[in-house]
Amino acid sequence: MAYQIQPDTKKGYIKMTYQSPTDTEEVMRGRKEMLQACRENNLHKILLDLSAVEAENSLSMFDCYSLAESWGKVKKRPPIILSIFMPQGRKEYSLVSFYITAAKNRCLTVEGFEDLESAEKWLADK
């Protein structure tokens, strides 16, 4: 499995860490498990840590668009607030930025951050 899901009820969010998503199906499987963890723990905030994802294993721009678009098709989706951590300067940063823009255009509350502390603070303030 290329990801870990950790509920943090003290901080009030689910932390999902990807090591290297290899394809869209893997990411979709992870998202399904993440949403299940949100329901089980009654949490709607998610911290997505992509700092360990490497370029050779990253998704294409089309994959990122498809993933953002697919949020609208999730049935009984809780009102998700998504904070994404990806250090700037990485090759994958532009893909993450594109995904964030596409997700915002589909009314998902999402923001990207270059450091973990800012990502956590934003979630705490929501």
Question: What this model shows, in words?
Answer:
The chain is of the alpha/beta class. It has one domain (3-125): 2-Layer Sandwich (Transcription Regulator spoIIAA). 40% of the residues lie in helices and 21% in strands. The chain has four helices and five strands, in the order ββαβαβαβα. It has helices spanning 24-41, 61-70, 93-104, 116-125; strands at residues 3-8, 13-18, 45-49, 81-85, 109-113. A five-stranded mixed β-sheet has the order 1-2-3-4-5, sandwiched between helices. Strand 2 (13-18), helix 1 and strand 3 form a beta-alpha-beta unit. It starts with a strand and ends with a helix. The model has no long low-confidence stretch (mean pLDDT 84).
Question: Which terms would index this structure?
Answer:
126 residues, alpha/beta, Transcription Regulator spoIIAA, five-stranded mixed beta sheet, 5 strands, 40% helix, 21% strand
CATH class: Alpha Beta
Order of helix and strand elements from N to C terminus: EEHEHEHEH
Alpha-beta content class? alpha/beta
Figure out the total of helices. Answer: 4
**Please, what is the average pLDDT?**
84
Fold blueprint:
Blueprint: E1 3-8, E2 13-18, H1 24-41, E3 45-49, H2 61-70, E4 81-85, H3 93-104, E5 109-113, H4 116-125
Parallel strand pairs: 2-3, 3-4, 4-5
Antiparallel strand pairs: 1-2
Helix pairs in contact: 2-3
